[in-house]
Write a structure and sequence with these properties.
By secondary structure, the protein is an alpha/beta fold. Helix content is 40%, strand content 17%. α5 runs antiparallel to α6.
């Protein structure tokens, strides 16, 4: 039996899921009225030292790992802004720092982690291990109890570390249209483990790489380039 019409995926979305599943990166441009940035995105469970090297060399932004709100709740992980707010009584300076970003109502940033087997945690090999393990936890999440997942997380990671976590909004693209939600929504629609690693594409002039240049980069490598509106439109149909 086929999927209901509302769950039928466009060729663009299905192809993006196939590319991610086989370990290829894709590029996603959010929107000119938001960050106006393109992120290089890959499936966390497929992280390799080569992908980390590619992200820092060709993208150049911060390499972060996004997870779903469901997994964040299972792990009982805090937003970084909440940590700042809770520490204000002891460190009053933090009260003036815990502000929403200019482009959104709230930051998606959570804690930072390293894998316990790492030394410094910053090398391509070590960040790949950290990110791949995060992806494996996301893969295991539907089949594990919250207690079991938290134990696995405790045994796997230390904090602070060199991989920042990003938490998707509960309603995904109905609430927020950042790269975190775009990535996790895409993974959910294509039935992949719900952790993606993202890195902003920077240009040579000191700012973000233009969408035209980012699309050209994707075309040169034979990789998929998606606009945020394409993912949002597919999500609205899929989740109806």
């Amino acid at each position: 039996m086929g999927l209901p019409q509302s769950r039928t995926l466009s060729k663009e979305i299905a192809n993006a899921g196939t590319a991610l599943a086989r370990g290829e990166p894709i590029l996603v441009y959010d929107a000119p009225e938001r960050e106006g940035e393109t992120d290089l995105i890959f499936l966390s469970e497929r992280a390799t030292p080569e992908l980390i090297h590619l992200a820092r060399r060709d993208a150049g932004g911060l390499i972060c790992t996004a997870i779903s709100e469901e997994l964040r709740r299972q792990l009982d992980l805090p937003f970084f802004s909440d940590l700042l707010a809770n520490a204000q009584s002891r460190y009053p300076l933090l009260a003036s720092l815990a502000e929403a970003p200019r482009y959104d109502r709230r930051s998606a940033f959570g804690i930072t982690v390293n894998h316990r087997a790492n030394y410094t945690g910053v090398s391509d090999n070590e960040r790949a291990l950290t990110i791949r393990t995060l992806g494996e936890i996301a893969t295991n999440a539907p089949h594990r109890s919250p207690e079991g997942l938290r134990e696995e997380f405790r045994e796997s990671f230390v904090s602070p570390g060199h991989v920042p976590l990003l938490y998707a909004s509960p309603g995904l693209l109905r609430e927020r249209k950042g790269h975190t939600e775009l990535a996790v929504s895409l993974l959910r629609m294509t039935k992949l483990s719900e952790s993606a690693t993202v890195c902003e594409m920077l240009g040579d002039s000191g700012g973000a790489r233009s969408p035209v240049a980012a699309r050209r980069y994707a075309d040169d490598h034979g990789w998929i380039f998606l606009e945020g509106n394409t993912i949002t439109g597919a999500w609205q149909q899929w989740s109806a």
